[in-house]
């Protein structure tokens, strides 16, 4: 479904990112940091993993971003019987043309929600690997580009729930950020209970910007300046994780590039054209905890305390 391109004009004082966040806060209550991280992830041309219990607003957030950003939206429900062709598409014989005709799958959308991604088998999960990294898919020997912008939001249920398959490290590494929404606080939950249905509110949202404006913002992120001390700071973080006994293995160069891109996007949201150490610190937890495992084989770690451990042990310079 192609969303209408009726674009309300933000006030002169409000930047486009601010206009997006203001509209999102009216629907997703009390999650300002998570909304900013999600938008920063998109502006950094990354992909987002939302891990949490069912019913806390993961799908609502994905649909809301698609509406506000005017993006083609497709939702894929990952189940144990999902096949790669259900994601990528399939070629069907066309009698009239006397040949096979490719029917694109839902991956050929600008915003793809991979809902409950860890309920599918690793074979189905692997259908996303090339798409998320290369922004293309190869089907029957032919490479097909994906639309721009292209953004995958994966939702994941906690691994203790029945019927889940842990995402392999190669899949986790394709996600620039992982966030948790969590329960709302008491006052916001009361507002939620007494207020309008969130799905109806999402359906009424009009796009805040066009595809061209979104691509321009993404380009502005790449142009944000990162001074040599910022590069040194990110490199020191990578080196610390590789030498720490707390982690089975350290962060890769791709993780370092992701941290830097995310920090630049965070700087853009703060209306700056340069990065500061606080930008790195703001995005670090979302960018690294899903990429790190504990010293014991298979031991998953995570949370803000891991980012705090890294930042407390890595001096600014």
Walk me through this protein's architecture.
It is built from 14 helices and nine strands. The chain is of the alpha/beta class. It folds into two domains: 16-213, Rossmann fold (3-Layer(aba) Sandwich), CATH 3.40.50; 224-313, Magnesium chelatase subunit I, C-Terminal domain (Helicase, Ruva Protein, domain 3). A five-stranded parallel β-sheet has the order 2-5-8-1-9. A two-stranded antiparallel sheet has the order 3-4. A two-stranded antiparallel sheet has the order 6-7. A hairpin with a 2-residue loop joins strand 6 (136-139) and strand 7. Helix 3 packs parallel to helix 9 and helix 10 (211-223) crosses helix 12 (253-269). Residues 1-13 have low confidence and may be disordered.
- What is the overall number of helices? 14
By CATH reckoning, the class of the largest domain would read: Alpha Beta
N-to-C terminal Cα separation, in Å?
50 Å
Structural class by secondary-structure content: alpha/beta
Number of domains: 2
Radius of gyration (CA) equals 20 Å
Strand order of the largest sheet: 2-5-8-1-9
CATH homology-level superfamily of the largest domain = P-loop containing nucleotide triphosphate hydrolases
The CATH topology name of the largest domain reads: Rossmann fold
Helix-residue proportion: 40-55%
Order of helices and strands: HHEHEHEEEHHEEEHEHHHHHHH
Q: Total strand count, please?
A: 9
CATH arch. level architecture of the largest domain: 3-Layer(aba) Sandwich
Taking all residues together, what is the mean pLDDT? Answer: 87
């Amino acid at each position: 479904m192609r969303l209408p391109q009726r674009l309300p004009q933000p006030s002169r004082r409000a930047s486009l990112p601010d206009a997006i966040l203001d509209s999102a806060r009216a629907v997703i209550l009390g999650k300002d940091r998570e909304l900013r991280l999600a938008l920063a992830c998109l502006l950094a041309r990354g992909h987002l993993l939302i891990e949490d219990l069912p019913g806390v607003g993961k799908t609502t957030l994905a649909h809301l971003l698609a509406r506000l950003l005017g993006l083609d939206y497709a939702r894929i429900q990952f189940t144990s019987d999902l096949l790669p062709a259900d994601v990528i598409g399939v070629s069907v014989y066309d009698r009239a043309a006397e040949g096979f005709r490719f029917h694109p799958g839902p991956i050929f959308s600008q915003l793809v929600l991979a809902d409950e991604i860890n309920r599918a088998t690793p074979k189905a999960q692997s259908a996303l690997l090339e798409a998320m990294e290369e922004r293309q898919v190869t089907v029957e020997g032919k490479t097909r580009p994906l639309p721009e912008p292209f953004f995958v939001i994966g939702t994941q249920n906690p691994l203790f729930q029945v019927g889940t398959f842990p995402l392999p490290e190669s899949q986790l590494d394709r996600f620039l950020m992982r966030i948790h929404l969590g329960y709302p606080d008491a006052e916001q939950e009361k507002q939620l209970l007494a207020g309008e249905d969130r799905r109806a509110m999402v359906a009424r949202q009009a796009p805040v910007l066009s595809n061209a404006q979104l691509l321009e913002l993404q380009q502005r992120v790449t142009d944000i300046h990162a001074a040599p001390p910022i590069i040194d700071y990110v490199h020191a973080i990578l080196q610390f994780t590789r030498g720490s006994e707390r982690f089975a293995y350290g962060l890769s160069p791709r993780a370092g590039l992701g941290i830097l891109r995310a920090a630049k996007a965070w700087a853009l949201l703060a209306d700056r054209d340069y990065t500061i150490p606080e930008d790195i610190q703001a995005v670090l937890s979302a960018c690294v905890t899903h990429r790190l495992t504990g010293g014991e084989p298979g031991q998953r770690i995570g949370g803000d305390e891991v980012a705090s451990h890294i930042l407390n042990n890595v001096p600014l310079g």
